[in-house]
Amino acid sequence: MKRIFLQRLLLRTARVSRGTSGFTLLELLVSAIMAVIMVTTLITFATSILETDRKEQAKVATQEEIQAALDYIADDMQEAVYIYDADGIAAITSGTNSANKLPTGTDKTPVLVFWKRTLLERDSEVTLAIDGTKRLVKCLGVATPAADGSNCYGTDQFVYSLVAYYLVKDATPSATWSKAARIERWEVKDGIVNPNCASTDATCTTGARRSDGYQTVDTNYYYVKPDNGFVRFDLSAQATTLSGKMNLWKETAAVAFNSYSAQTLVDYIDDTPHASNQDDGSGSGILNIPIRSNATALNSTNNANLDCESNAADSKGGTGGGSVRVPADFGSATINPTGLTSFYACVNSRLDRPVARVFIRGNALARLFDDKSFRPLGNANNNTFIPTANTLIFGRSVVVPN
């Protein structure tokens, strides 16, 4: 009897167990689908957060670099004595002697071009023109200077330099820089003259000082050789205004600059091509520019751009106004070879000291995507990663025409 009872009890327990211990195939399938949906949602959310973080980091880095570039330009231009406006740049980059003037090219647009006083500190090292050896600035003119310069009492020296900032867009992608655009700084400077050598001194010849671009320098006259091709501006030139005199500048006809040797100031500058509605005042462009193209219609009396500030009367031969945009016309292949609008300035060369408001627009997305198709503009999400900054710069010096 007991045996029969136990068998029935085990059979009942097995039946109950088979009915409650597992899941059906449908239940398992539904659970798997729900799990996939949840995991996919979490992955998508995490990826979105990481992508947003990458873009924000790129945006912050771009903003910081643009501001650093503007600060550098502002410091550089504080010693400016003259800045070329749009007409001035056209004068020194074109004409019958275009091969002997400011460097140009289809991949670069000159925006800021100015003359400045460059400081050579007394404890800095320079190369002697006479034999190529190195010497401290304070030891120039000392026959036998001590190794540590302890018997040298010279002072700081200033020389004139011609500086140009270009917006550059490579026709062929560079292995060093991004596929977007960048800003480069180019400079040529004068040498240091021996103050004891006058033009009437028989030991100092005069023929090699200015005539051949300093390939053959009078080493009695120059302590330090000027850069090849350099010629200082000539204030005795036959022109009635300061701008007229400065616009006659060109490098020496006999010797060209060694090459276009420039240093990159900042990379990842926006490479969005110019569109006519960007600066026509309609406000309908994707990346609107607050300064319209230069046109006499803006101010027929003074030929100034009223979208720029600093249009006060001048005291150096002008009729007032004179603040214009550089480049004057983004749509001109001659004036703006790169066809870009991400680096420009309002320049006034007529006031008692040089004035410029400089604008730079970066492209944070170019840090993440070399291919422009992955960073299209025209929507609010992408446009926020195209930061723009500007600063107003005043030079502290001025040249006075004869």
Provide a brief overview of the structure:
This protein has 402 residues and is of the alpha+beta class. The protein contains 5 helices and 13 strands.
Characterise the protein shown here.
There is one protein chain. The chain has helices at 2-20, 25-77, 86-93, 242-246, 380-383; strands at 80-83, 108-120, 125-127, 134-136, 157-168, 181-189, 192-193, 222-224, 263-269, 324-326, 343-348, 355-361, 388-394. The strands form four sheets. The protein has a five-stranded antiparallel sheet with strand order 1-2-5-6-9, with helices on one face. The chain has a four-stranded antiparallel sheet with strand order 10-11-12-13, covered by helices on one side. A two-stranded antiparallel ribbon has the order 3-4. The longest helix has 53 residues, at 25-77. Strand 3 (125-127) and strand 4 (134-136) form a beta hairpin. With 402 residues, it is α+β, with helices and mostly antiparallel strands. It is elongated, with a radius of gyration of 33 Å.
